[in-house]
Amino acid sequence: MGGDAFAIDCEIASGAKETSVRFMILGPLEIVDQNIPIKITASMQRLVLAVLLLNVGRPVSVEQMVTDFWGDRPPASARKTVHGYVWRLRGLLDRSCHQHIETVDNGYRLQADDVDSVRFERLYRAARQASAAGDPASAVRLLSEALDLWRGPALSNVPTTPQIALSCTRLEELRLSALAARFDTGLEMGQHHVITPELRVMVIEYPLNEAFHAQLMLSLYRSHRPAEALDVFYKLRSYLVNELGVEPSPSLQELFLRILANDCQLAVT
C-alpha cells in the first residue's frame, strides 16, 4: 500500500470524522451526546440497543430477537413485546440524541456513525496494515488507541443471551489478539523493558495463554534476566501438568530450550 493511501486509512481508523453521538459497547453500554451521558434505565431496552449496535447498519429481524431473547419456546406475545421494546427505545433515542431506528422488512436497523467496537476493529486492521508495511511505530500507536477504547468487559450491563454472549466472546478474543500484537510489535522495537510489567499482569489474568507467557519469557531474556524467563516456563508447565495433565506447546518448549542455551539469535536485532 502506498504511503498516502496508508495515511488515509490510519486517519479513517482513528475516527477523524467526529460525531456528536457516541455509542459505546466495549464496557457497559453507554450513549454520550456532546459529552452528556444518556441514561437507559430499562435493561430490555439496553438489550435491544445492544443487538442493533452489534449489527449496526444491518437489518435485524424481529424473529432473530424473539429467538435470541426467549429461545425455542417464546411466549405468544413475544413479537408484540419486541415491538414495544423498540418503540420505547426509538422514542428515547429520537428525543435525546436524534438517532432514529429504521423499520425495515420484518425488523429494524440502526445507522450510527460512531460505535466504539467498529472503531476498534478499524484501528486493529489499520495496525496490521502498518505492521505489514514495515511501520511498527504506527502499528503500536494504532493498537494502543484501539485498546484504549475498552472500559471493561463488553456489554457488562446488558442481559446475557446466546447471541450477546457469542458477540462478547468474539470481541474479547479480538482484544486479546490486539494485545498480543502490541506486545509483539513492542518486542520488535526493542521495548522489552516497557512491556515486561504489563506482561506480568497478563500471565496472571490469563494463566493458560501461552502467547503472553512466550512474550514475557522473551522480554525478560532480552532484559538480561534469563533466570526469570526460565522461571516463567517452569511455573506455566507446573500449572498445565498439575491442573490439566498436558505439557506446554512444542513452540514454547523450543523457546525455553533456546533461552536455556543462551541463543544469541533471540536478542534484539
UniProtKB/TrEMBL annotation:
It comes from Nonomuraea solani. CDD domains: BTAD. This is DNA-binding transcriptional activator of the SARP family. Residues 9-112 bind DNA. InterPro entries: AfsR-DnrI-RedD_regulator, BTAD, OmpR/PhoB-type_DNA-bd, Sig_transdc_resp-reg_C-effctor, TPR-like_helical_dom_sf, WH-like_DNA-bd_sf. One of its GO terms (biological process) is regulation of DNA-templated transcription. PANTHER family: TRANSCRIPTIONAL REGULATOR REDD, TRANSCRIPTIONAL REGULATOR REDD-RELATED. Keywords: DNA-binding, Transcription, Transcription regulation. Pfam families: BTAD, Trans_reg_C. The keyword Nucleus does not apply. Belongs to the AfsR/DnrI/RedD regulatory family. It comes from the Bacteria. Residues 9-112 form the OmpR/PhoB-type domain. The keyword tRNA-binding does not apply. GO terms for molecular function: DNA binding.
